[in-house]
Amino acid sequence: MLWKKWAPILMGSLLIGLLFFMINSRPGSSEPVDREDLVPTLFVHGFKGGPRSFETMMDRMQNLQWGQKHMTVYVSSRGHVTIRGGFAETHNPFIQVLFENNRASIYNQTHWLSEIMRRLKADYNIQQVNLVGHSMGGLASVNYLLSEHHYSVPRVEKLSVIASPFKGIEKEGYFASNYGEATTDLRPKSEALKQMVQNKDQFPNDVEVLAIAGVINGDDPETEHWDGLVHASSVSGLEAIVPFGQYEEKRLYNPLATHSGLHELEEVDQLIKEFLWADKGK
């Protein structure tokens, strides 16, 4: 019969058409698309940090529908960047940045951040980002903004640093029990920290900054406030770098606002949300 003659041809055509549809429907990043309104937020961990440093914060924010984690960026000890994930249609994508060498110098972390930014623009056509850095992640983020790298890659709209010691760490015995290149940079009056202040004129005049400090020992003005590791005055050192009118600081007086516990507090979630996304209806 006639239908038996044409059935294999029709079936073959249907399979080819289905295969073509699946290939063209598969999400990819090789074709840059217009993402002028997309502003991913990069979360950068601190000294000795890792996947758990910002994981629970991002989980809480996702549960509240403030955004969604779409990408993880791994940087090897040799600086090789591996990106997992991609950008779907979303109002507010999160990117988690992980350094294999989590004890690296500010210089190295700055260089790695610049390579991440280059990849985001070249491979995904990202035009602007926000940065959230905990402790040394905040130092590296600021140093990146003080470098020449940020001019040719995604523009940083807003930066939030959490417990970042811009005047170093003064806790007694801390450097006797920790090691790595970072410990040189984290000392008070280190060359890396002094260089950041000396380069303050290079800080962009259009980046809004929020610094968050934890205070676990009460609000007595006669007491040196700290989070158990970093003094609030060290966090405030960022004000000497950021241009006038672009800096805002919040101090959380809470026994749970420890150096490693700050990014586990819902109060900090709310501060970051209001700073980064309040004007975007998130």
TrEMBL record:
Under Pfam families, the record lists: DUF915
Q: Which domain of life is it from?
A: Bacteria
- InterPro entries given in the database record: AB_hydrolase_fold, DUF915_hydro-like
* PANTHER family listed in its UniProt record: SLL1969 PROTEIN (PTHR37946)
Q: What is this protein called?
A: Alpha/beta hydrolase
Q: What is the lineage of its organism?
A: Bacteria, Bacillati, Bacillota, Bacilli, Bacillales
